[in-house]
Structures are given as C-alpha cells and as structure tokens.
Amino acid sequence: MVDNNRMQQLAAEPLVVVGAPSSAIRGTWRELRDVFHQREMLGMLIRRDLKARYKDSALGFVWTLVRPLTQLLIYYFVMGQILMAAKGIDNFAIYVFTGLTAYTLFSEIVAGSTGSIVGNSGLIKKVYVPREVFPLASVGAALVNYAIQFAILIVATAVLGKFPWHGGLVYLIPSLLVILVYGSAIGLVLSALNVYLRDVQFVIDVGLMVLLWGSPIVYSYSMVVDRLNVGWLLAIYTNNPLTLSVLGLQNAIWLHKPGIVDYPDHLMLRLLIAFVIGVFCLIGAQRVFSRLQGNFAQEL
Q1: Which segments within the chain are labelled E, that is strand?
Q2: Coil, helix or strand for 246?
Q3: Would you call 257 helix, strand, or coil by DSSP?
Q4: pTM for this structure?
C-alpha cells in the first residue's frame, strides 16, 4: 500500500528538464559561467599545452619563433628579392612578419582547437568539466605564442627605426579581436565535428594553406585591387575576416611611404561590423558544440 502511494506521488510530480537551457542566450550564459568556475582548470590546461609542446626541448619557447622566422626568410628572399614582390612594398620584412604573426595566431587557434577534444579523450572519459575549456585552452596557448612573436616584431621595428608610434595603432585591438572571435567560433565547431569525423583535421590543413595565400601577407592589397576586376569577388576577398585583420594589423604596425599601399574604405567600420557578426557566430558555434558534446565520451 505504501509503495502504491509512493508511486502515485512520483507520477504526480511534474517533469523537470535538466541540463543546459535550450535558449541560445540562456544556454550560452550558463555554460560560460561553468567555464568561469573552472578557470583554474583552464589555466592549468593552457600551461600543460605550452609545456607539452616544448617538452624535453633545450630551446623551449625559442621554437615558437622558428617557423614564422623561417617563413619570413623564405618569403623575403624568394618572393621579395627573386620574384621582386618587395619592389612595390616598403619595409617588406616588417610587412611580411606582421601578416605572418596574424595568420599564425589564427591557424594555431583553429588547428589546436580542432584536435583538442580528441587529444584530451582520456581526461574527458574520466572526469566531467565543461568541454569548452579544451578548445579555449588552445586559444590561450596560441595567444601566449602570439605575444612572444609580437614582442619580437616590435623589437624589430625599433631596431630598424620604424617603431609604430602613430595613430594607426587604434587598429591593433579590433584586428586581434576579430581573429579571436572567428578563430574560436571555427575551432569550437570543428573540435566537436572532429570527434565524429576524424577527416576534419586534414581538411583544416588544406583550408589554412588556402587562407595563407588568400590573405595579403606576401603581396599587397593594392595588387589585388589592380588585378581583381570583378566587384563582388573583390568584396568577398576584402571582407574576409582574416584579410581585414591582416590589413588592420599592417595599418597598426607597418610604417610605409604614403601612397604605396591602399587600404579598403572604412577599414575600422569593416572591422567593427566583422567583430559584431563574429560574436553572433561564436554564440552559434557554442550552441552547436553544446548539442554535439553529449556523445563525446561514447565516441571517444
């Protein structure tokens, strides 16, 4: 009799949906709070990623500079001197390195985030933490590496007598924010998709290579304007978030003679619009990640 009463009481209880709210804003806000409560874990993962990258290495963080500096030397001599790309670009070395640091930040965020869930499968299957901390740890590690490269870039400008103390520095923060929001959004979605389809990480390598040559890093934006006569193609190229960020950082760091390189009209406005759109993309990416993370442990 007691059991029957208990069953009737349980049947009369209203159903309560547990878990993250389905609303995009409420759900994202709740999961951001969970990530904030796990900020010590996030910091630990960033330090672990940095230490693991240079584990048993005698030079340590010096290797952070090897790849971009090697690319700089190759582009400077092959593209700049042999193919004469430097002929129309003042201070070509600073120009190229500014673009390379921006591209490296974006590529490390995307590539690191894509493999972050699979790479931490052992931890994910054992303990529960907000899954977003793993892609975000890749973002943090990429920012640390960028800070080192950016410091070298600033030292180089000072040594060459081209220190960027001018009004164009206002483009620095918006350009970096655009890279961060779009890199994080793409990284979140791809990190979840990579759990179910491991070919994603190989597609990313190809995509990042295309973006390297699809951004004005080893050639000037003026060359694109002169040769790309189709209006809508030029608009797509110009409003690519990575292209806008590269142009913004070049405007902030690279000093050149007036009239050598043209920038698109209303560059700051374009950056701000790209940032706002990127924030909405990041919210949407987080919701996609949240929907896909339910089966991570089983798939891994």
Answers
A1: none
A2: helix
A3: coil
A4: 0.85
